[in-house]
Amino acid sequence: DCRLQTVERYVCGRRRVGDVPGAQIPEVYHRFVETGDARLVAPILRHNAQDLVTVAEVLLKCLG
Length: 64
Description:
This protein is mainly alpha-helical. It has one domain (4-63). It has helices spanning 4-12, 25-35, 41-63. Helix 1 (4-12) crosses helix 3. The longest helix is centred in the C-terminal third of the chain and has 23 residues, at 41-63.
């Protein structure tokens, strides 16, 4: 399993808690588009921000 959250767990030593699973993000986004409820966007932005932090941390660990 090479999902980013799996790499995050083994390489960075942390698990996400309360995160929207990546597979559910399109559904949540479509609900936002349909309803205009901006509260639905915050969990998506948090998820994406955590993805960026994790990718940067994994890159730094790979570089040495």
